[in-house]
Amino acid sequence: MDKRQLGTSGPAVSAIGLGCMGMSDFYGPADRSESIATLHAALDAGITLLDTGDFYGMGHNEMLIGDALATRGRDNLQISVKFGALRDPAKAWSGYDSRPAAVKNFLAYSLQRLRVDHIDIYRPARLDPDVPIEETVGAMADMIKAGWIRHIGLSEVGSDTIRRAHAVHPIADLQIEYSLIARGIESDILKTCRELGIGITAYGVLSRGLISGHWSKDRTAAKDFRQMSPRFQGSNLDSNLALVDQLRAIADDIGASPAQVAIAWVAAQGNDIVPLVGARRRDRLTEALGALEVKLTDAHLAALAKAFPPGAAAGARYPEAQLAHMDSERKLTA
Question: What's the pTM value of the predicted model, to 2 decimals?
């Protein structure tokens, strides 16, 4: 497995990371034994970056990872954790808390659930509108000095917030959605990260399965959070699946699956970008790993650029109520 450096201050990680969210939350029931088998298969394949959040399944995802690592250890492994999102017993969202005291509290619980003595990359899940980012990053910097975390990351924030955070302590990477149909970071945020030497861990590289080649109209009744996503609704879905038809044609020419080409495209946008794949089954993981063998020529990249210009997707990437609270969406249209 090739490695990529997360920015100038971050660790070297596998060229693809595993996003573990779907093993615990948001995509309906998951099979515990298959989830652990998938985690083990990822480690065996050379994946060294596991991404989670303390609110995925209200701690379930961290405990699952802890169980999977109990028999494997964590040598040469980086664990990335998002914190700060608040949920109630009904699993509803109730805001964010990134106060310094909350940072240390969330961290203590994550260390316990993961059964580790440090977390490699720690990041607020979203910008807390009531807490200056400088205070949050300052608290994380204190935790670096204490040895509880190794690097500081950010998630879904805009350029101004990135600059303010980086002025307090070097930021290893920004985690943000980036795919063929979610290219908003190209207008400003990506440039800022590259100017400051901050890496990108890209989630949503398959747009929640929409451009994987496995989605179809008869799955619109899926009982998970995608039923609230504008890109999976009504005529938006029809338009987006038409884009996937173009992707499938290009993939057929390459001799790969649509998912593999979509992942390879993100990876081809720069050595400072690490795609996160949300596989929760071994067969999907195997397919995703196949993207590492896909070589996109200039002609392939030109064909993909023509098929997926910025703004090609129908519908926003999140419901409007969520976009209104996302710092990364300020002054952005994609």
Answer: 0.93
pLDDT in tens, the chain (334 residues): 999 999 999 999 999 999 999 999 878 788 999 999 999 999 999 999 999 999 999 999 999 999 999 988 788 899 999 999 999 998 888 899 999 999 999 999 999 999 999 999 999 999 999 999 999 999 999 999 999 999 999 999 999 999 999 999 999 999 999 999 999 999 999 999 999 999 999 999 999 889 998 876 555 545 676 777 888 888 888 888 999 999 999 999 999 999 999 999 999 999 999 999 999 999 999 999 999 999 999 999 999 999 999 888 888 888 888 888 889 998 644 4
With respect to residue 241, please indicate whether it lies within any of the assigned structural domains.
yes
Task: State which H helix or E strand residue 304 sits in.
Answer: helix 298-307
Q: What is the number of structural domains in the chain?
A: 1
Residue 313 lies in a domain: yes
> From CA 88, how far away is CA 79, in angstroms rounded?
25
> For residue 330, how far is the Cα from the chain centroid?
19
Catalytic positions, written as ranges: 56
Q: In terms of residue numbers, what domain contains 173?
A: 3-329
Does 83 map to a domain?
yes
CATH code of the domain containing 57: 3.20.20.100
* DSSP symbols for 276-304: EE---SHHHHHHHHGGGG----HHHHHHH
